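Section 4.2 – Deliverable D4.2 (structural model, holo form)

The reporting period included a commitment to supply a predicted holo structure for the target in complex with manganese (II) ion. Inputs used:
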Amino acid sequence: MSDLSNVRVNGVRLWDTLMEMGKIGGTPKGGCKRLTLTDVDKEGRELFKRWCEAAGCTVKVDEMGNMFARRAGEDDSLPPVILGSHLDTQPTGGKFDGVLGVLGALEVVRSLNDLGIRTRHPIEVANWTNEEGSRYAPAMVSSGVFAGVYTKEFAHARVDQDGKTLGEELARIGFKGTEPVGGRPVHAYFELHIEQGPILEAEGYDVGIVTHGQGQRWYEIRLTGFESHAGSTPMPRRKDALLGAARIVELVNKIGLSKAPLGVSTVGMLNPYPGSRNVIPGEAFMTVDFRHPLDETLSEMDAALKAGVEEITKAIGLTYDLEQVFYYAPVPFDPACVEAVRRGADRFGYSHRDIVSGAGHDACYMARITPTSMIFTPCVDGVSHNESEDIKLEWSTAGANVLMHAALEKAEIVA
Ligand code: HGY
Ligand code: MN
Ligand code: MN
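Output (structure tokens):
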């Protein structure tokens, strides 16, 4: 098959599929709350499985709950080309973060079926467990196990805010599979994802050719002071853990700003204890998220945080425990896969630009074990991790077309 310009996905079917999945965990503001390993995640997984089986795929689940829907290749002994992302969302997430990559890959399979196209390598559609890292830290833990970064035991032992382990919840929803996690050859990995930032839309590009994923460091900080009466404890005698946390919030923000324009820093969680209006908080739990495209800069941010926390807690008389719970260095994607994505965009005449991913993705771990790259679509106002997250049908269609063509380059069409 030489002329591939008519090898396209069915963009309306993809859009309808996205809207259907978006109903599972749908929120009144039009977003999606489908936290990993909850009952709604189970419901979404089961719907995804039905869709894949209806498309002629065999679905396997590994011991991390990662789902792989396999479309057989002419030579099924060859390693698969995997296309995927994640179906779990943030608590105030949208309908497209992760979901576009999983259902866009399913649309590629559906379209190959419609067009009667066979490939030499098998193609697998993947749904990775707990990409978001919201309920269980670290993020992308299951693709991390698949890529050999974490052990299965480490991942299963992760605990959520209610003390439930990832392993228990996986079993509870019936997705603790029997397939080994990873340890098998993968020919290539491509991930379609929304940009989750403002660049592509603001600059008017149809597609982002993702060349790198920026690095990340996540921390958990537990501050300990002393609970005492809000009315009768003189100011100089207080050991106010929340005051310490507040100063650390300011410190984290300053560190991010000091590494502008590419450095970013966030305190996403802050829980004072006991949380009574007339008790001086004796404890505070907080999280820190640092990101930057340069590893040495991430290290500088790390050092500034540790020095600042020591100084702040000493001044107030607090003790603390600071733990780094997640780290990966900036990830360069495979140049040949990046060029396959570029050729896909050029084939359709889509405007495109190279871009570094601000968000983390399962592709950042898959890049450790197989040639990997990503395709970005714009998103409205660059908004994500917000219920108003939105894209346009022409963007999801373009992204899925490019995903299909990049995948076909690696999976090899059989005439
Ligand atoms: O945090 C991230 O970058 C991703 O959404 N897990
Ligand atoms: Mn995502
Ligand atoms: Mn996300």
